[in-house]
């Protein structure tokens, strides 16, 4: 069994992201057999350690399974397939040239690659060494890769014009407000922060793509984390739930103003299932929430 990677060891340089693309599927499958899913508290350090471990073990499977849909240099906001080319949530694509953009929870940095192709200067941050190796494999030309925890960004104040994240980091951290404060700190005033995550309503429903995923089975108001843990009780995967109202309050307290909340509808052309996301459910209930914010207030608690 692999050891936890302590959160304070999360500041490695991207130089480590240089190994060949090999499969870890056997190891992750073996580990998964010993894990049970529970709802229980999970703190900041435990959540970061679990994420780093889980994404290191499962990055190969994730990229193999979803890489074609994501595209090597597309910017896809979620399983519905809405992309930034069409949505323009970061502003007009023509205005991206020269912009300093922070992407958090970047995975293989497909979004950053799309941004770089439009002349932006992206920094792609991820806690998982293995995900960043995939970014290297795809070719990180024009993209700076940085291994770090989104809650402790080793980046200078006001050093970015824009920040974005497609399902990265935010759903996996115990203290999302701390992540938002960090993003606010490194953004210049007036900079946009746009991020997507699982639509909070999905937490009331079983995570199943079929009809069984359409019947309420849990309270939308239960914020207890979802945890997969090993036999010793150590968290191996953690996701955190907040209601829509919680997210708005976290963002406001961190110094952001919400401009828009986009709930992409399931398009006719998209026939693929992605975990609990499916055409059946997508036609009836939202699966993704995209928060479009602007940093127009001083960040609370900045020193
Ligand atoms: C669902 S993947 C999304 C990756 C990419 N944005 C995409 O669309 O494919 C979530 C990513 O968040 C990263 N992540 C999780 N917790 C994190 C944290 N605390 N700090 C930085 N990245 C984190 C994971 O390593 C993983 O690469």
UniProtKB/TrEMBL annotation:
<keyword id="KW-0489">Methyltransferase</keyword>
<dbReference type="InterPro" id="IPR029063">
    <property type="entry name" value="SAM-dependent_MTases_sf"/>
</dbReference>
<protein>
    <submittedName>
        <fullName>Class I SAM-dependent methyltransferase</fullName>
    </submittedName>
</protein>
<keyword id="KW-0808">Transferase</keyword>
<feature type="domain" description="Methyltransferase type 11">
    <location>
        <begin position="102"/>
        <end position="195"/>
    </location>
</feature>
<dbReference type="Pfam" id="PF08241">
    <property type="entry name" value="Methyltransf_11"/>
</dbReference>
<comment type="similarity">
    <text>Belongs to the methyltransferase superfamily.</text>
</comment>
<dbReference type="GO" id="GO:0008168">
    <property type="term" value="F:methyltransferase activity"/>
</dbReference>
<dbReference type="InterPro" id="IPR013216">
    <property type="entry name" value="Methyltransf_11"/>
</dbReference>
<dbReference type="InterPro" id="IPR051052">
    <property type="entry name" value="Diverse_substrate_MTase"/>
</dbReference>
<dbReference type="GO" id="GO:0032259">
    <property type="term" value="P:methylation"/>
</dbReference>
